[in-house]
Amino acid sequence: MIAPMSRSLSDHSDIILQMKQITKRFGELLANDHIDFEVRRGEIHALLGENGAGKTTLMKILYGLFSADEGEIRIDGKTATITSPRDAINRRIGMVHQHFMLVPAFTVAENIILGSEPARHWMFVDSREAAERVKRLSEQYGLRVDADALVSDISVGMQQRVEILKALYRDADLLILDEPTSVLTPQETAELGATLRELTSRGKSVVFITHKLREVMQFCDRVTVIRRGRKIGTLDTADTDPDELASMMVGRAVSMTVSKSASSPGDEVLAVNNVYARDSRGVEALRGLSLSVRAGEVLGVAGVEGNGQSELVEVIAGLRRVDSGDIILGGVSIANMRPKDILRMGVSHVPEDRQRRGLILDFTVWENMILQIFDQPPHSRGLLLQPKQSKESCYSLASEFDVRPLDLEMRAGSLSGGNQQRLVLARELGRRPRLLIVSQPTRGLDVGAIEFVHQRIIEERDQGTAVLLISLDLDEILSLSDRIAVIFEGRIAGTVDPASTTEEELGLMMTGGTTSRSKEVSSAW
Amino acid sequence: MVAGAKRLARNAVGAVAVPAVAIATALIIGAIIVWRSGENPLVAYSSLLTGAFGSRSGLGESIVYTTPLILTGLSVALAFRCGLFNIGAEGQYIVGMTASAWAGYAFTGLPAFLHVPITVMTGAAAGAAWAAIPGALKARLGVHEVINTIMMNHIAIYFTHYLVMGPLLAPPGNSPMTRPIADTAKLQRMFGMGRLHAGIIVALLAAVVVYYLLWKTTTGYQIRAVGLNQDAARYGGINPTKSMVIAMSISGALAGMAGAVQIQGLQYRFLDLFGFPGHGFDGIAVALLGQNHPVGIVLSALLFGSLASGSMQMQSVAGIPKDLVGIIQAIIIFFVAADQIIRRAIRLRLPGKTAATALKGGTISGSGDAV
User: Chain B: nearest CA to A177, how far in angstroms?
Assistant: First the structure.
């Protein structure tokens, strides 16, 4: 069943894109190994694979950002040489990158026309004409945007629509979306699905790069699975199921659900009481937030990005000042204590951004492993580090958490994302915490790594650790949490039982409920 | 173990490649300039070489020039490892000179084995104090250290001018200088090689100490952590403010020590300055070329030191202006700073397959891992 399969598509005359035997090497690494890939006119075609499988590389070759070492690209049956994004745009290919490429200080319309501005006379941008065209385009495809709003003021979902409009404005027939849902709320994701349907009904074709199986099943007509630079097969989504796709992607059977027993919570470990704090710009981010986590339970904090999640984690870890309110850890107030002292009291923290905060990428694996304990025995004696002892304990932790390659002298930055996260987990769990804060623990990880991270979090809970889980991924919140607290505008909007709630209910609470939907969301649609 | 040795070799090749190509390119461009101005480049370079290494006194002189550069290079590199750009090595060098000149004559009756180190340490302490001011301003108030250290350089020059014209002026006061230091404070001349003095031993010891400090101690661990990723350091419980002040003070101590060594090994008294001596500024170039590593710094200081000493000979024997050396140094720095130019050039020369590895400072020798 998992054997490579590919159905003959040569009988389809309506093929917009053919990539044949595409091969790309980065040094020793074979990123794309003779990949064949085809897209039909009017379909949504998922390009599915784990991180580092080579999906984005393949699409960057198509978009002219990389050049292939071997292989051929045919567009509408004709051989095409694409050496720059400019070439790709001329061939009516558009790409929406995972990280948006918008100018925050420009309006929506200005961003859309950037680079192909309609000119009045010889150098003046005809802004009225531009706004007019943007409006026409957005009406035509049902992509609602506010043409005159500044990009810095609009929601992430709208920014994505702006990116799509940018491509359409340049007459793209084939649209490549790189992990488009990673930044969206469940509602926005559903809206994106509808948008893509609208586009394909008008003859546009979409390549949907993702590693999320649910989206493949929900939105896509066909799916091509790539593993370690090789094409594993192309299937109609109607003929497959998530389990089959997962095993094609990973190369072995994977459990898609987290198996866990009922929790048996003990005493309260963490209490956050009516805490107020400001974000880095000085704007109030936490406005009287309260929550409590008991030993042996996972409290999941669900919410749309930017509602105070990061600040909540930071005040608990001592990385941000608490303006008022209190934080109690095991009966002791830790509000505004030094990060070091909070760490020593048994708090472990897997930060949301492992590359910016969780790791020092230019440090070796073992140097990263002692980040919080380098000045304690056995890792140092007096002023002197004791690398031998550190490496020994690092070796056993890293092998327990299966960090690959198991090379203690390797730069942490050279590890893959999944292995970086394993390294962070190994370090944080290795300290045997009382309270474990995990923030976006599986962001950007592949199926195999997600399974591992989830298992470890549940194991930690079962050993009696209090776990505070912050995630934007609702599936993750639902499958791991024993209780779910929904955060909205710096407060907990409500706490629900994952067994009895629905995604819709959570989605509503995350946006402030039916009555007080946030302005951004309502004006967006 | 084999993998470790290979990585070590590969890292070394990667670290040396850019500076080596930069030096070679600079020498070639220097040769073209000499040739275009009607002189013989071979004569220029051979007289440069004989000047720097051709005689015992020439070699001694090269090392004399090298000595303060090692110390100021270490100074700049140590601050840089903590993410700080210490342009103030120059000022710290100047106050180090003044302070050690004072300690050299003010303490009397001490045996040399005490007086020499006390005098060196007084210079170092003055440099440390001078650097701690911008260090603290950066750490506490976020004031950028580049601006502050530059200003501190000017303050240093005028402050020492005041000292040497006032409280430290040697009687009878005809010329602006301090009294000569005691013989017990002097760094010994060595091996009968011209002016070669024991300062080079101080400099090499400092290089070893800096290496150990950075890679073997908890202080060094914190300094490097803060320099590489302040957010992660803070997350790990390290206090970046404290590390910055410590790094800046040690950096200043090294520059101050450079000044002390100049006084105790060469000048024996502080003479009023009419401009920046430049050893502190050259330390920036030395650190850059030496990739902020003590071994690299010793080597690049030796290069700059011998270029400087050889250029005298070149000018007097071959009649080629010693400004040529300035040009060569500038081109070296240009290419090291703009290292992407060189990395790209190296990559172009290699066949496609290994290009990416070469770019990462990898298998330039062509050996690579036989996995």
Answer: 27
